[in-house]
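<context>
A single protein, sequence plus fold
<entry> Chain with its tokenised backbone below
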Amino acid sequence: MTAMRLQKIWRLCGWVTGSCLLAAGHLAAAAAEPMAPWPQRPVTLIVPFVAGGGTDTFARLLAPELSAVIGQAVVIDNAAGAGGTLGTRKLLQSVPDGHVLMYGGISETVLIPQSNPAAGYRPQDLQAVSIIASTPLVLATRKNFPARSLDAMVKLARLSPMKYTYGSSGVGSYGHLMFEAMARQQGIQLLHVPYKGSSQMLADMASGQIDLALTNLPSAAPYAKTHKVELLAVSAPQRLAEWPNLPTFAESPTFTQAPISIWGGVFAPRDLPPETALKINAAFTQALKDVALRAKLAQLGITLEKPRSPSESQTFYERQLRQYQPLTTTP
């Protein structure tokens, strides 16, 4: 082998070695570079229902306090439709960096993806970042509905199967599945009328277009306080201080298994980095410490949960999936 050829080989080896060292240096620098801070721009909080419902009301009360904590605008995006699945799909199509979140609940995160294969996502696609609040359910009726108690409603419905209607926030939502379970237990049949959200449903009830609905107290409260709809029962363990004349389901001798309270929380796509999840969780926890905000939520019948970490929130979510799985498979 000539000296000139040896020199070319050594030069090539030197170039390869140098390139490898340079690449290794870039990788080491990238690994050492800290994660980008959150948030870097305004945060979108998806509400998967129309404006005016309980979920939307909570999100809009919370948004200013959260914005003050994170130093960025918090934009509410009402992506309504299909019982909350349209908003959930919109969340899952976003980049999992914490700048698009969803304030969701049991319908779109637990019930629908387990009961409807066409939902377009699975519960495993979602990550619970912070389970925040819970609220009882109420059985609401139009103002001139002839029954004025739970037992009277059951007797009336038994006499005329499929004569009376009930609304919900969509097929597969808690208002749909829980009402159907309640109806089966009581041996009654009613006609289901699905909506895009509780605000439209309650507006139609106030105008007499539907008869009944099982919905959350914050959504129904403004209509009940102005006597546009009536409330027959609440799923709380005892009567509420703000609603002393509203009986609980447990007070009825015919209701051995009443609907339970529902919850709401912050969700993100499953690939959200753990460090970002911790920052988001801490920001929501801090925002919810505001005294005035807590008072407003209490007036609406919303109970703030004990703060949970992202991992504790995810454990709660997975437990809910197991708890409600039988309900989603009941024919």
Summary: The first strand starts at residue 43 and ends at 47. Residues 1-34 have pLDDT under 50 and may be disordered.
